[in-house]
Amino acid sequence: MAFIDYYKILGISKTATEKDIKTAYRKLARKYHPDLNPDDKNAEIRFKEINEANEVLSNPNSRKKYDKYGEDWKHGEEYEKAQRQQQGQSQSSQQGFSDKEYSEFFESMFGGGRASYGQSRSTKFKGQDYNAELKLDLKDVYKTQKQVLTINGKKIRLAIPAGVENGQVIKIKGKGGSGFNGGPNGDLYIKFIIDNHTQFKREGNNLYQNVDLDVYTCILGGDITIDTFNGKVNLKIKPYTKNESKVKLKGKGFPIYKKEGKFGDMIVTFHLKTPTDLSEKEIELFKELQKLKGQ
Q: Which pLDDT tens digit goes with each residue over 6-36?
């Protein structure tokens, strides 16, 4: 059988970096994966070759041996041992074997000709990883919920923990493509896209909201009712509350991811709402206050 060039299989040069190898492997594995090429024997063979080439070249130690001994890299140690035993017998043995001698040496040591590609290895390959996006509203992830997703025709039951963040990616082990040659299934990676159509702004586990106060409440104080994610709460406003004043409501923020019963805080910012459309009587009263203030 002709020599199998792993570099050629991955379409890279012998000076390729680890990153180059990884990039080339992922691109080709996706292209020739059996799940994407059903009943295509050529794609199946290519997928085996690609995985074997990556298995060897992505490991620095095996790559070093492969560069030195070619496809017989696994028997490099046996060769070196035999070569040391032949030292002193001839000048040629001291300088190493030729390509032909390599072939003859391994055939004599390991019995007959080399096995064909399909028979020489029984490597197990992990299935293809799947990637998906799931769009939800902020209110949907305030509580843990269950959903059934359909990925590549398969229904997957998914428990979504409360507190998932926008852009967060979670891995579901074994829910990707089927393994090859008895290898493990790939994994499913789900990225969450969280839209916010509420009055609250979320930053981590904390929620923020602005609340308008009329001038009378700012000056005299009083009681108001505001919304939170899980109901309404009453707040007591102190007299002479300034514009842009803030108050923290402990534990009224967003659930903390995978920490049952724990929540962030809610930060409320008060904004002074300037009165408009005043009656003549109200205007007169403000003028009286202005006069009193000027005395």
A: 899 999 999 999 999 999 999 998 888 887 8
Helix (H) / strand (E) containing 265 = none
Single out the residue of 62, 86, 60, 82 nearest to residue 72, CA to CA. 62
Assess whether 58 and 104 both reside in one domain: yes
Judge if 86 and 183 occupy the same domain: no
Pairing of strands 201-203, 188-195: unpaired
Only one residue has tokens 């190898």, namely 21
Total residue length of the chain: 295
Q: In what order do the strands lie in the sheet with 130-137?
A: 130-137, 188-195, 169-172
Long-range contacts of 73-77 (CB under 8 A, 24+ apart): 75/106, 75/109, 75/110
Count of Cβ atoms closer than 10 Å to residue 33 Cβ: 22
Q: How far apart, in Å, do the first and last CA atoms of the chain sit?
A: 108
Q: Does the structure show a pLDDT above 80 at 98?
A: no
pTM: 0.55
For position 13, what pLDDT does the model report? 92
The answer for residues whose C-beta is within 8 angstroms of residue 56's C-beta and 6 or more apart is 6, 62, 63, 66, 73
Residue 1 lies in a domain: no
